[in-house]
Protein backbone atom coordinates (compact mmCIF):
# COMPACT_ATOMS: atom_id res chain seq x y z
CA UNK A 1 0.00 0.00 0.00
CA UNK A 2 2.85 2.39 0.84
CA UNK A 3 4.57 1.64 -2.47
CA UNK A 4 1.36 2.40 -4.38
CA UNK A 5 0.95 5.66 -2.49
CA UNK A 6 4.52 6.66 -3.39
CA UNK A 7 3.83 5.80 -7.04
CA UNK A 8 0.68 7.93 -7.00
CA UNK A 9 2.53 10.90 -5.48
CA UNK A 10 5.44 10.55 -7.92
CA UNK A 11 3.12 10.49 -10.96
CA UNK A 12 0.92 13.39 -9.87
CA UNK A 13 3.82 15.64 -8.80
CA UNK A 14 5.75 14.84 -11.99
CA UNK A 15 2.69 15.56 -14.14
CA UNK A 16 2.16 18.88 -12.38
CA UNK A 17 5.73 20.15 -12.86
CA UNK A 18 6.01 18.91 -16.46
CA UNK A 19 2.97 20.92 -17.58
CA UNK A 20 3.97 23.83 -15.34
CA UNK A 21 7.34 24.10 -17.06
CA UNK A 22 5.66 24.34 -20.49
CA UNK A 23 2.31 26.11 -19.97
CA UNK A 24 2.36 27.74 -16.54
CA UNK A 25 0.03 27.54 -13.59
CA UNK A 26 -3.55 26.96 -14.72
CA UNK A 27 -2.62 24.13 -17.08
CA UNK A 28 -0.32 22.52 -14.55
CA UNK A 29 -3.39 21.42 -12.57
CA UNK A 30 -4.30 19.17 -15.51
CA UNK A 31 -0.92 17.53 -14.99
CA UNK A 32 -2.13 16.34 -11.59
CA UNK A 33 -5.08 14.56 -13.19
CA UNK A 34 -2.91 13.18 -15.98
CA UNK A 35 -0.37 11.86 -13.47
CA UNK A 36 -3.14 10.28 -11.35
CA UNK A 37 -4.52 8.57 -14.47
CA UNK A 38 -1.08 7.17 -15.32
CA UNK A 39 -0.67 5.89 -11.74
CA UNK A 40 -4.08 4.19 -11.91
CA UNK A 41 -3.22 2.50 -15.23
CA UNK A 42 0.14 1.33 -13.90
CA UNK A 43 -1.54 -0.19 -10.80
CA UNK A 44 -4.04 -2.05 -12.97
CA UNK A 45 -1.25 -3.38 -15.18
CA UNK A 46 0.65 -4.47 -12.07
CA UNK A 47 -2.39 -6.39 -10.79
CA UNK A 48 -2.77 -8.14 -14.15
CA UNK A 49 0.94 -9.01 -14.36
CA UNK A 50 0.92 -10.55 -10.87
CA UNK A 51 -1.44 -13.26 -12.15
CA UNK A 52 0.83 -14.17 -15.09
CA UNK A 53 3.47 -16.91 -14.54
CA UNK A 54 7.07 -15.70 -14.54
CA UNK A 55 7.86 -18.01 -17.45
CA UNK A 56 5.22 -16.30 -19.59
CA UNK A 57 6.49 -12.83 -18.64
CA UNK A 58 10.03 -13.80 -19.59
CA UNK A 59 8.86 -15.12 -22.94
CA UNK A 60 6.79 -12.01 -23.64
CA UNK A 61 9.64 -9.58 -22.86
CA UNK A 62 12.15 -11.62 -24.87
CA UNK A 63 9.73 -11.83 -27.80
CA UNK A 64 9.03 -8.09 -27.72
CA UNK A 65 12.76 -7.31 -27.77
CA UNK A 66 13.23 -9.57 -30.78
CA UNK A 67 10.24 -7.97 -32.48
CA UNK A 68 11.62 -4.44 -31.93
CA UNK A 69 15.01 -5.49 -33.33
CA UNK A 70 13.28 -6.87 -36.44
CA UNK A 71 11.32 -3.61 -36.76
CA UNK A 72 14.58 -1.64 -36.61
CA UNK A 73 16.16 -3.83 -39.31
CA UNK A 74 13.08 -3.49 -41.55
CA UNK A 75 13.05 0.29 -41.17
CA UNK A 76 16.75 0.42 -41.91
CA UNK A 77 16.27 -1.76 -45.00
CA UNK A 78 13.42 0.41 -46.31
CA UNK A 79 15.76 3.38 -46.51
CA UNK A 80 17.66 1.58 -49.30
CA UNK A 81 14.83 0.09 -51.34
CA UNK A 82 12.14 2.77 -51.15
CA UNK A 83 11.72 6.49 -51.62
CA UNK A 84 9.51 6.69 -48.54
CA UNK A 85 12.37 8.19 -46.59
CA UNK A 86 12.42 11.16 -48.98
CA UNK A 87 9.07 12.21 -47.57
CA UNK A 88 10.19 13.12 -44.08
CA UNK A 89 6.69 13.58 -42.68
CA UNK A 90 5.93 9.90 -43.40
CA UNK A 91 9.01 8.53 -41.64
CA UNK A 92 7.75 8.75 -38.00
CA UNK A 93 4.52 6.99 -38.94
CA UNK A 94 6.38 4.20 -40.74
CA UNK A 95 8.57 3.69 -37.66
CA UNK A 96 5.51 3.75 -35.38
CA UNK A 97 3.71 1.17 -37.54
CA UNK A 98 6.69 -1.19 -37.62
CA UNK A 99 7.37 -0.86 -33.90
CA UNK A 100 3.69 -1.43 -33.03
CA UNK A 101 3.21 -4.45 -35.30
CA UNK A 102 6.51 -6.21 -34.62
CA UNK A 103 6.49 -5.40 -30.92
CA UNK A 104 2.97 -6.81 -30.56
CA UNK A 105 3.75 -9.96 -32.55
CA UNK A 106 6.93 -10.52 -30.54
CA UNK A 107 5.12 -10.05 -27.22
CA UNK A 108 2.26 -12.41 -28.07
CA UNK A 109 4.32 -15.11 -29.78
CA UNK A 110 7.04 -14.98 -27.13
CA UNK A 111 4.57 -15.44 -24.26
CA UNK A 112 2.83 -18.33 -26.05
CA UNK A 113 5.84 -20.18 -27.44
CA UNK A 114 8.05 -19.94 -24.34
CA UNK A 115 6.48 -23.24 -23.22
CA UNK A 116 8.18 -24.96 -26.17
CA UNK A 117 11.57 -23.35 -25.58
CA UNK A 118 14.52 -25.63 -24.76
CA UNK A 119 17.90 -24.01 -24.41
CA UNK A 120 20.81 -24.17 -21.96
CA UNK A 121 18.95 -26.50 -19.64
CA UNK A 122 15.80 -24.39 -19.60
CA UNK A 123 12.87 -26.63 -20.42
CA UNK A 124 9.47 -25.18 -20.95
CA UNK A 125 6.37 -27.25 -20.54
CA UNK A 126 4.39 -28.35 -23.53
CA UNK A 127 0.58 -28.25 -23.66
CA UNK A 128 -0.99 -30.45 -21.00
CA UNK A 129 2.18 -30.78 -18.90
CA UNK A 130 0.84 -28.67 -16.05
CA UNK A 131 -0.48 -30.81 -13.19
CA UNK A 132 -2.71 -28.83 -10.84
CA UNK A 133 -3.30 -30.14 -7.32
CA UNK A 134 -6.82 -30.20 -5.90
CA UNK A 135 -7.50 -29.71 -2.17
CA UNK A 136 -8.81 -33.27 -1.80
CA UNK A 137 -5.70 -34.91 -3.25
CA UNK A 138 -3.44 -32.85 -0.97
CA UNK A 139 -5.41 -33.76 2.16
CA UNK A 140 -5.55 -37.42 1.06
CA UNK A 141 -1.74 -37.57 1.11
CA UNK A 142 -1.20 -40.51 -1.26
CA UNK A 143 0.13 -38.19 -3.96
CA UNK A 144 3.18 -37.59 -1.75
CA UNK A 145 3.84 -41.33 -1.65
CA UNK A 146 3.51 -41.52 -5.45
CA UNK A 147 5.97 -38.63 -5.84
CA UNK A 148 8.40 -40.33 -3.47
CA UNK A 149 8.50 -43.41 -5.70
CA UNK A 150 9.64 -41.23 -8.61
CA UNK A 151 6.61 -41.87 -10.83
CA UNK A 152 5.66 -38.17 -10.66
CA UNK A 153 8.41 -35.61 -11.23
CA UNK A 154 8.71 -31.99 -12.26
CA UNK A 155 6.58 -29.03 -11.25
CA UNK A 156 3.21 -29.41 -9.56
CA UNK A 157 0.92 -26.38 -9.57
CA UNK A 158 -0.80 -25.34 -6.34
CA UNK A 159 -3.24 -22.44 -6.91
CA UNK A 160 -3.39 -19.77 -4.23
CA UNK A 161 -7.12 -20.38 -3.72
CA UNK A 162 -6.39 -24.06 -2.90
CA UNK A 163 -3.88 -22.95 -0.26
CA UNK A 164 -6.46 -20.56 1.17
CA UNK A 165 -9.02 -23.37 1.37
CA UNK A 166 -6.48 -25.60 3.14
CA UNK A 167 -5.77 -22.82 5.63
CA UNK A 168 -9.49 -22.30 6.17
CA UNK A 169 -9.92 -26.01 6.90
CA UNK A 170 -6.88 -25.99 9.21
CA UNK A 171 -8.42 -23.11 11.19
CA UNK A 172 -11.83 -24.79 11.45
CA UNK A 173 -13.53 -25.15 14.83
CA UNK A 174 -14.24 -28.80 14.01
CA UNK A 175 -11.38 -30.95 15.31
CA UNK A 176 -11.57 -33.46 12.41
CA UNK A 177 -11.54 -30.75 9.74
CA UNK A 178 -8.73 -28.95 11.53
CA UNK A 179 -6.67 -32.14 11.58
CA UNK A 180 -7.29 -32.75 7.86
CA UNK A 181 -6.32 -29.20 6.94
CA UNK A 182 -3.08 -29.35 8.90
CA UNK A 183 -2.33 -32.73 7.37
CA UNK A 184 -2.72 -31.19 3.91
CA UNK A 185 -0.28 -28.38 4.73
CA UNK A 186 2.19 -30.92 6.14
CA UNK A 187 1.88 -32.98 2.94
CA UNK A 188 2.74 -29.94 0.80
CA UNK A 189 5.73 -29.20 3.02
CA UNK A 190 6.89 -32.79 2.68
CA UNK A 191 6.57 -32.65 -1.11
CA UNK A 192 8.55 -29.39 -1.26
CA UNK A 193 11.48 -31.17 0.40
CA UNK A 194 11.47 -34.04 -2.13
CA UNK A 195 14.20 -34.21 -4.75
CA UNK A 196 12.89 -33.90 -8.28
CA UNK A 197 9.52 -32.45 -7.24
CA UNK A 198 8.87 -28.72 -7.32
CA UNK A 199 5.79 -27.02 -5.89
CA UNK A 200 4.86 -23.82 -7.72
CA UNK A 201 2.33 -21.49 -6.09
CA UNK A 202 0.21 -19.74 -8.72
CA UNK A 203 -1.57 -16.50 -7.81
CA UNK A 204 -4.01 -16.76 -10.72
CA UNK A 205 -7.55 -16.31 -9.42
CA UNK A 206 -11.01 -15.94 -10.91
CA UNK A 207 -12.96 -13.52 -8.68
CA UNK A 208 -16.15 -13.84 -10.74
CA UNK A 209 -16.20 -17.65 -10.34
CA UNK A 210 -17.54 -19.11 -7.11
CA UNK A 211 -16.27 -22.39 -5.70
CA UNK A 212 -12.79 -23.92 -5.68
CA UNK A 213 -13.77 -26.72 -8.09
CA UNK A 214 -15.03 -24.26 -10.72
CA UNK A 215 -11.85 -22.20 -10.33
CA UNK A 216 -9.71 -25.31 -10.79
CA UNK A 217 -11.52 -26.10 -14.04
CA UNK A 218 -11.06 -22.51 -15.26
CA UNK A 219 -7.36 -22.56 -14.37
CA UNK A 220 -6.84 -25.92 -16.10
CA UNK A 221 -8.51 -24.51 -19.22
CA UNK A 222 -6.34 -21.41 -19.17
CA UNK A 223 -3.07 -23.32 -18.58
CA UNK A 224 -4.13 -26.27 -20.74
CA UNK A 225 -3.20 -28.51 -17.80
CA UNK A 226 -4.42 -31.57 -15.95
CA UNK A 227 -6.07 -31.71 -12.52
CA UNK A 228 -4.76 -34.13 -9.90
CA UNK A 229 -7.67 -35.11 -7.68
CA UNK A 230 -9.59 -37.92 -6.01
CA UNK A 231 -12.89 -36.01 -5.97
CA UNK A 232 -15.48 -38.01 -7.95
CA UNK A 233 -17.76 -35.01 -8.67
CA UNK A 234 -14.88 -32.78 -9.82
CA UNK A 235 -13.71 -35.65 -12.00
CA UNK A 236 -17.05 -35.84 -13.85
CA UNK A 237 -17.55 -32.07 -14.15
CA UNK A 238 -14.03 -31.52 -15.50
CA UNK A 239 -14.28 -34.36 -18.01
CA UNK A 240 -17.54 -32.93 -19.36
CA UNK A 241 -15.65 -29.70 -20.09
CA UNK A 242 -12.76 -31.46 -21.79
CA UNK A 243 -10.27 -31.23 -18.91
CA UNK A 244 -7.87 -34.13 -18.43
CA UNK A 245 -8.10 -35.65 -14.93
CA UNK A 246 -5.45 -37.65 -13.08
CA UNK A 247 -7.46 -39.46 -10.40
CA UNK A 248 -5.46 -40.98 -7.54
CA UNK A 249 -8.29 -43.42 -6.77
CA UNK A 250 -8.21 -44.73 -10.35
CA UNK A 251 -4.43 -45.10 -10.07
CA UNK A 252 -4.81 -47.09 -6.85
CA UNK A 253 -7.44 -49.35 -8.45
CA UNK A 254 -5.25 -49.90 -11.51
CA UNK A 255 -2.36 -51.03 -9.32
CA UNK A 256 -4.39 -53.63 -7.43
CA UNK A 257 -3.51 -57.26 -8.26
CA UNK A 258 -5.47 -58.72 -11.16
CA UNK A 259 -7.85 -61.51 -10.10
CA UNK A 260 -9.42 -63.80 -12.71
CA UNK A 261 -12.52 -65.99 -12.43
CA UNK A 262 -11.57 -69.50 -11.32
CA UNK A 263 -8.71 -68.42 -9.05
CA UNK A 264 -8.70 -69.68 -5.47
CA UNK A 265 -8.16 -67.42 -2.47
CA UNK A 266 -8.03 -67.78 1.29
CA UNK A 267 -9.95 -65.04 3.09
CA UNK A 268 -11.45 -64.27 6.47
CA UNK A 269 -15.18 -63.56 6.56
CA UNK A 270 -15.64 -60.30 8.47
CA UNK A 271 -19.40 -59.83 8.41
CA UNK A 272 -22.61 -60.79 6.69
CA UNK A 273 -23.46 -59.26 3.34
CA UNK A 274 -26.52 -57.29 2.30
CA UNK A 275 -28.04 -60.19 0.38
CA UNK A 276 -29.21 -63.37 2.18
CA UNK A 277 -26.47 -65.98 2.53
CA UNK A 278 -23.62 -63.64 1.62
CA UNK A 279 -20.47 -63.03 3.63
CA UNK A 280 -18.02 -60.13 3.21
CA UNK A 281 -14.22 -60.33 3.33
CA UNK A 282 -11.46 -57.87 2.41
CA UNK A 283 -8.03 -58.12 0.84
CA UNK A 284 -5.04 -56.28 2.33
CA UNK A 285 -5.51 -53.42 -0.15
CA UNK A 286 -9.14 -52.94 0.91
CA UNK A 287 -10.79 -54.74 -2.02
CA UNK A 288 -14.18 -56.12 -1.00
CA UNK A 289 -14.89 -59.80 -1.57
CA UNK A 290 -18.48 -61.02 -1.62
CA UNK A 291 -18.66 -64.72 -0.66
CA UNK A 292 -21.81 -66.56 -1.67
CA UNK A 293 -22.85 -68.76 1.26
CA UNK A 294 -20.32 -67.19 3.59
CA UNK A 295 -22.74 -65.83 6.21
CA UNK A 296 -22.33 -69.02 8.26
CA UNK A 297 -18.55 -68.52 8.48
CA UNK A 298 -18.33 -65.00 9.95
CA UNK A 299 -15.05 -64.79 11.86
CA UNK A 300 -13.60 -67.87 10.12
CA UNK A 301 -10.95 -68.23 7.42
CA UNK A 302 -12.18 -70.12 4.35
CA UNK A 303 -11.06 -71.01 0.83
CA UNK A 304 -13.10 -69.43 -1.94
CA UNK A 305 -13.20 -69.54 -5.76
CA UNK A 306 -13.54 -66.28 -7.72
CA UNK A 307 -16.63 -66.25 -9.92
CA UNK A 308 -16.55 -62.68 -11.29
CA UNK A 309 -14.90 -59.28 -10.83
CA UNK A 310 -16.79 -55.97 -10.97
CA UNK A 311 -14.94 -52.68 -11.48
CA UNK A 312 -16.87 -49.66 -10.18
CA UNK A 313 -16.02 -46.00 -9.70
CA UNK A 314 -15.75 -46.68 -5.97
CA UNK A 315 -13.27 -49.52 -6.49
CA UNK A 316 -13.10 -53.19 -7.36
CA UNK A 317 -15.49 -55.86 -6.02
CA UNK A 318 -14.77 -59.59 -6.23
CA UNK A 319 -17.61 -62.13 -6.19
CA UNK A 320 -16.78 -65.66 -5.08
CA UNK A 321 -18.24 -68.86 -3.73
CA UNK A 322 -17.05 -71.34 -1.15
CA UNK A 323 -14.57 -73.93 -2.34
CA UNK A 324 -15.52 -77.64 -2.39
CA UNK A 325 -15.10 -78.82 1.24
CA UNK A 326 -16.30 -75.56 2.76
CA UNK A 327 -19.39 -75.67 0.56
CA UNK A 328 -20.15 -79.22 1.66
CA UNK A 329 -19.81 -78.27 5.33
CA UNK A 330 -22.06 -75.29 4.67
CA UNK A 331 -24.61 -77.54 2.99
CA UNK A 332 -24.40 -80.03 5.84
CA UNK A 333 -24.93 -77.26 8.35
CA UNK A 334 -27.97 -76.21 6.39
CA UNK A 335 -29.44 -79.70 6.45
CA UNK A 336 -29.03 -80.24 10.20
Short description:
This protein has 336 residues and is an alpha/beta fold.
Q: How do the helices and strands line up, and which of them pair or pack?
A:
Elements lengths: L1 H22 L1 H26 L3 H28 L9 H23 L4 E2 L2 E2 L7 E3 L1 H6 L1 H8 L4 E6 H11 L4 H18 L4 E6 L9 H12 L2 E4 L2 H9 L3 E4 H7 L9 E5 L2 E2 L5 E5 L5 E5 L8 E12 L2 E8 L1 H12 L1
Parallel strand pairs: 3-4, 3-6, 4-5, 6-7, 11-13
Antiparallel strand pairs: 1-2, 8-12, 9-10, 10-11, 12-13
Helix pairs in contact: 1-2, 3-4, 7-8
How would you sum up this structure, described in words?
This protein has helices at residues 2-23, 25-50, 54-81, 91-113, 135-140, 142-149, 160-170, 175-192, 212-223, 232-240, 248-254, 324-335; strands at residues 118-119, 122-123, 131-133, 154-159, 197-202, 226-229, 244-247, 264-268, 271-272, 278-282, 288-292, 301-312, 315-322. With 336 residues, it is of the alpha/beta class. It has three domains: 2-117, no CATH class; 131-254, Rossmann fold (3-Layer(aba) Sandwich), CATH 3.40.50.1010; 264-335, OB fold (Dihydrolipoamide Acetyltransferase, E2P) (Beta Barrel), CATH 2.40.50. A six-stranded mixed beta sheet has the order 8-12-13-11-10-9. A five-stranded parallel beta sheet has the order 5-4-3-6-7, with helices on both faces. A hairpin with a 5-residue loop joins strand 9 and strand 10. Helix 1 packs antiparallel against helix 2 (25-50). The longest helix is centred in the N-terminal third of the chain and has 28 residues, at 54-81. It is elongated. The protein starts with a helix and ends with a helix.
